[in-house]
Design brief:
The complex is a heterodimer of chains A (127) and B (181). Chain A is built from three helices and six strands. With 127 residues, chain A is of the alpha/beta class. Chain A has a single domain, classed as Transcription Regulator spoIIAA, CATH 3.30.750.24. Chain B is α+β, with helices and mostly antiparallel strands and 181 residues long. Chain B has one domain: Heat Shock Protein 90. Chain B is 47% helix and 23% strand. Classes of the chains: A alpha/beta (127), B alpha+beta (181).
Chain lengths: 127, 181
């Protein structure tokens, strides 16, 4: 299947969903007024990927900022991946946050508490 | 006194970095965010503070944007569809103030939400955010009912607000968010 590559903008993140190696990356900022529109193709891609996934799926979340509209869409994305995890792929989430960015660290912990997927919190100097 | 000078002095007294009054569009939102980012970069703002201000500003602006986007505002006078935004820096702390008209009948629900959020401490806000995030539904406009909770959580201060009745069907809502270091 085709990879999903979207270039980032002032309000939307860079998307690199690679069906070949099972690495799904979101990077940058996700602050659109209405995020449903932006996330729909991502959900569709994951649905298609779920029919023949790699044995290991790594989700790389490298967000600098996201708004509350996106937070709900990101949750839905994790829920989709949660379902895949019980099938024929093992899903792991790497949640990146910048040094001292407690808000982003906490946001990762919030998802970790809601979603039944293994989360690894990774502190980096700069995203 | 000269009227323009009067407005200028008032903005200066309040230490306003940026102010805007008018229609809130998606493009304007992008521009305001870019201006604030470069202003904070220019003064070498602490990255932690910068992120908080940016995050809260996004939510405040998007509240205004979604509010004004409401269909029931299409038939009201143009002035009631515009909003006010002021960003001030007093000492080391930032203040974001917004003002907008709203339907008087929507005031009780918003007031209840603001009081609820203001009555919560850090841990309660975290728990409430998680609850609304996992149980709440998203509107077709892409709002998740999380804005005020997120603003309160990130600001670390109580939200200051006022509802000023304009007439039977309209009130003016003002909100000030302080960003503690």
């Amino acid at each position: 299947m085709e990879n999903l590559i979207l270039e980032g903008s002032a309000k939307t993140p860079t998307v690199k969903f690679d069906a070949g190696n099972g690495v799904l990356e979101l990077k940058g900022r996700s602050i659109p007024e209405n995020s449903i529109e932006f996330y729909k193709p991502l959900n569709d891609w994951i649905d298609a990927y779920g029919t023949s996934p790699k044995p290991n799926t790594i989700v790389e979340i490298k967000l600098e900022y996201f708004n509350t509209s996106s937070s709900k869409c990101i949750l839905d994305l994790f829920k989709q991946l949660e379902k895949l995890n019980s099938g024929n792929t093992e899903v792991k989430v790497n949640w990146y946050f910048e040094e001292d960015d407690e808000d982003m660290e906490e946001a990762g912990e919030d998802y970790q508490a809601i979603i039944d997927l293994p989360f690894k919190m990774i502190e980096v100097e700069e995203i | 006194m000269n009227q323009v000078y009067e407005i200028y002095k008032k903005l200066e007294e309040r230490n306003v970095l940026l102010s805007f009054k008018g229609m809130i569009t998606s493009e304007l939102l992008t521009t305001i965010l870019q201006i604030m980012e470069s202003k904070m970069d220019h003064i070498d703002e602490n990255p932690k503070v910068k992120k908080k201000v940016f995050n809260i500003l996004v939510e405040c602006l998007q509240n205004l944007y979604h509010h004004i986007d409401q269909d029931d505002f299409v038939h009201v006078p143009a002035e009631e569809r515009s909003a006010l935004l002021m960003i001030a820096k007093i000492g080391d702390s930032y203040q974001i103030t917004t003002g907008n008209y709203m339907k008087a009948s929507d005031v009780p629900v918003l007031k209840e939400k603001l009081d609820l959020v203001n009555g919560m401490d850090k841990e309660e806000l975290k728990a409430y955010y998680k609850q609304v995030l996992s149980e709440g539904n998203m509107s077709s406009k892409g709002t998740a009912g999380l804005g005020m909770i997120d603003i309160a959580r990130k600001s670390g201060e109580k939200l200051e607000y006022e509802f000023l009745p304009i007439n039977d069907r309209t009130s003016f809502f003002s909100l000030t968010v302080k960003i503690a270091e």
